[in-house]
Specification:
Helix content: 55-70%
Radius of gyration: 13 Å
Number of strands: 0
Largest sheet: none
Order of helices and strands: HHHH
Structural class: mainly alpha
Oligomer: single chain
Length: 61
């Protein structure tokens, strides 16, 4: 079975650099100024992307 969630599929196939750039974009546009400069906040976004992109039961890459 293939991914039915295109966002999860895109994140699963994205490079670490792409995920980091997207995380910085989200931090700069969604978080307060203090939080957007926090590298731990950006790393937590990338970790969330990885968890979201992890295959669910029955899905394959």
């Amino acid at each position: 079975m293939a991914y039915s969630n295109k966002i999860a599929e895109a994140l699963a196939n994205a490079s670490e650099t792409d995920k980091a750039e997207f995380a910085h974009f989200l931090a700069n546009n969604l978080d307060s100024a203090e939080q957007s400069r926090d590298s731990a906040r950006v790393r937590s976004y990338v970790a969330a992307f990885d968890r979201f992109a992890a295959p669910k039961q029955g899905e394959e890459f």
